[in-house]
Amino acid sequence: MSAPTADRKATGVFSPSRAQIPQRTLRTDRWWQSPLIVDLGFAAFLIYGFVRAFLQNNYYVAEYHYLTPFYSPCISKGCLPEASHFWPQILPDVWWLPYAKYTGETRFPLVIQNTHRYFFYIAGIISVINTYDAIVAFQSPSGFGFGLGNVILVVNVILLWTYTLSCHSCRHIVGGRLKHFSKHPVRYWFWSQVSTLNTRHKLYAWITLGTLMITDFYIMLVASGTIHDLRFIG
């Protein structure tokens, strides 16, 4: 018997101290369902995101200032000028370069968990940009306007902020270094609120991925003329 094989026989399920049963595991639950659902969910989001990024059309409704979060900030030279607002168009207009878009923790570099805490700041910036886009969208040809697109944009921003602020990095920044909560009642209150959100961080992540796609899909339909925005005011 070779040395590697002997070492393998002496550890884990082959350890002499393990009960002598033929099964490698006694788990009878469907443990594979959760990772399978996660993989399928991320795959659906990535496929949709890549398709929309490379289509590079129907991302802005000029009449109501609706800009999909997948193309915000619109900093490519191929962007419509009015879709960029005050952002400088610094990226070249080439077919293989998609517009900037939110991808969450689905690919490099956000999948590197050890550096995850630093990307909390990036997520905060993205949330600020999307908040700005949602506010600008309240303009219509007659002045202040309000439609179904505004509802979708605002809901998306609220959920995006909920996801961002529920991050464990935010929780640590707010009160992670405090040794005596009693001496910092304000920070302790904020820490308690973020901690409550943090317990559902995974849920908010899934919801945010869904609202991002819904927001983009609705704006795409309006921008392409497939449907008309349901207007309440203006």
Task: Please provide a written account of the structure.
With 234 residues, the chain is mainly alpha-helical. The protein has one domain. It is built from 8 helices and 6 strands; from the N terminus they run ααββααβββααααβ. The strands form 3 sheets. A two-stranded antiparallel sheet has the order 1-2. The protein has a two-stranded antiparallel ribbon with strand order 3-4. Helix 5 runs antiparallel to helix 8. It is globular. The chain starts with a helix and ends with a strand.
Low-confidence stretches: none
Number of strands: 6
Q: Structural class, from helix and strand content?
A: mainly alpha
Distance between the termini: 81 Å
**What count of structural domains?**
1
Give the SSE string: HHEEHHEEEHHHHE
What gross morphology would you assign? globular
In order across it, which strands form the biggest sheet? 1-2
Which range does the strand content fall in?
5-15%
| Rg for CA atoms | 24 Å
Largest sheet: 2 strands, antiparallel
- Name the helicity range: 40-55%
Average of pLDDT: 81
- Number of separate helices: 8
Please summarize what this structure is.
This protein has 234 residues and is mostly helical. It has helices spanning 3-9, 33-55, 81-84, 119-136, 148-165, 168-175, 185-198, 201-223, and strands spanning 60-61, 66-67, 139-140, 143-144, 146-147, 231-233.
Topology (SSEs and partners):
Blueprint: H1 3-9, H2 33-55, E1 60-61, E2 66-67, H3 81-84, H4 119-136, E3 139-140, E4 143-144, E5 146-147, H5 148-165, H6 168-175, H7 185-198, H8 201-223, E6 231-233
Antiparallel strand pairs: 1-2, 3-4, 5-6
Helix pairs in contact: 2-8, 4-5, 5-8, 6-7
